[in-house]
Amino acid sequence: EVQLVESGGGLVQAGGSLRLSCVASGFTFEDYAIGWFRQAPGKGREGVSCFGPSADGTYYEDSVKGRFTISADNAKNTLYLQMNNLKPEDTAVYYCAAYWTPHHTVEARDLCLGRLPYDYDSWGQGTQVTVSS
Fold first, then answer.
1. Which of 56, 81, 118, 131 could form a disulfide with 86 if both were Cys (CB 3.0 to 4.6 A apart)?
2. Buried/exposed 43-57: b ≥16 CB within 10 Å, e otherwise
3. pLDDT digits over 12-70, tens only?
4. How far apart are CA 106 and CA 86, in angstroms?
């Protein structure tokens, strides 16, 4: 069973940093595109940063470029999102999601923008990030 568990959210002042973690079980990153998404109150879900399969290729949403960094530890089967210089508009519930792509046809941008042949395979439960001004 594919499972994702996020952690690392919290309350931080503007300009601060947080590192989110997403522990994956039931699969490895080799044939999965995986990434971070967020949903703020009253807004739709948006892709923040994603990896293609085997953590090959990255995508960042424009507003987080230069501030957020996605990384993966294959030995720990864990995905990370380092968030620096946080802004109040980054306040949201952050989720990680995975998509099986055994032929590596789905790339990082596809995952983050939802350009997928079928629905995401798995979502985590989410972790709240609140940035105060």
1. 131
2. eeebbbbbbbbebeb
3. 999 999 999 999 999 989 999 999 999 999 999 999 999 999 988 999 999 999 999 99
4. 29
